[in-house]
Amino acid sequence: MLLRSLIALLILATPTYAAPGDPWEGTWRNSSHKRLWFFQDGDTLWGSASNRFRYIARVSPDGRTIRGTQFEKSRTQYLFEYTLSADGQDFVGDYVALSGATDAVPSSTNERMSGYRAETDWVRTELVDVDFVDANTPFDSILNMNNPMHVAWINFQAPFEQPDAPRVDIDDLPIPDAGNAGLWQVIDQQYGQIGTVAMDEDASGFVASGQVRIPDFQGGIPLLATFTEYSNNQTLDQASFKIVQSGDTQFATVNIRPGAGEQFDITFDGDFLGVDRRTMQLVWIEGSIPPLDPIDLSTLEIPEPGDFGLMRVTTAVHGQIGTVNWNQDRETLKVTMQGQIGIPEWLDGEPLDVIILEGPNVFDDAISLSHTASGTTVTMPALVEEDEGDQYFVTFVGAELSDNLNGDYTITVTHIPNSRPTTGTPPQEDLRILRIDTDRIPMGLAVQVFEAPLRDAPVIGTLPSDATGLVMRQCNPLLSDEQLRLNGEDLYNVMADRFCLVDAPDITGWVGGAFLTR
Question: Which residue, 68, 154, 166, 209, is most buried by CB atoms nearer than 10 A?
Fold first, then answer.
């Protein structure tokens, strides 16, 4: 089954939340902090997660549950069912991969997914050309709320409420040094917080260790708890509790799964520590991940500026990790960013030559990292998302580089103002100096300047009809060199259906190309 196209026209706007009638509509972040955009129309939901995933689902009559199919750009398909919390701010559920394009049989055990509502960064103006192609299986057979195959693989473990039992005295328990995944509270279903553990995480899973106290086990003496989770095989998950005084250790097989938000749900297999069915959670302590040493930028080369100048490369944890230049091919529209960066979690942050490619198709996106001293080069697909404000988000599979980079790794690439080359300017650069066409805008009137190249984008200012010396940075769609050399009516004909980003003395923004001339 192929998802051929799902195109939504979006504009930037003041953050708002979904109307009560469409409770799923809006921007969400899942348990991996990735953004999801859901568009709801009654009992039907469409969605996307960056450029990598597409969703289509049916909404239950009460509006609380969505059930449907998720498509990955690799053409892997998943069934999913997510349920909304009572306040509409969180969801939790399961998804499972399908074994084939037509038989719709789950091919793996359930995976847990949770998410929380984020500030909506778009307003839907129109949904265009929703077209699903499947030569074998009608979509309704997959989306039918009554289809039993959507029930067979659902296996919920709902997050539990905090107990009313007296608080456990944990003040005398030592708090361990934070692991690479920080510190986590250990929450018992019956007693609330019973201790704190430090978590170290890599591509295979995590190990979390620290002291806890369980009131109904040997009078609540201190225990050294260790929780081991294997990402690829839940049947191997294990918990152990070592009596600090005697060294005796009890082991248990457990099921550890991601829960709602930054937490893990732990279910013990059978009678353990005096309780028939014990359930715990690990809940992340915000801000507890220890910072790594920053990159020494003086060891990294700064490249020559590209067509659009230089860009700063940053991560949310480390700040700036390098600098790249910024070029774009006017014919193919492919963006190339090239320079040097350091990744603290890989090769101790030593200088890496990086090439980031962003093409007109998501399958063209890629990142290449080369370490000259060792001769190591890693090239992998990437997800390159362009954002407003001359910024890109680049996501790739960090686990391919290092065990310290579990899952996806995201870097942000942001344009450095005034970094475009000012010397050796090619002749065509003068062709980018434009003015407002007074033949089309009478004196005394003004031309609107938009935040984005859309007619419905927010207006951020105006230009007077006699404005001159406007520097055209780029147009959408891009102009070829041949088109850039046109004049008069010929120039108007190619500019009429474009928006152009222009620099004026007091404002930078997008202007209708029809109003620009030489």
Answer: 68
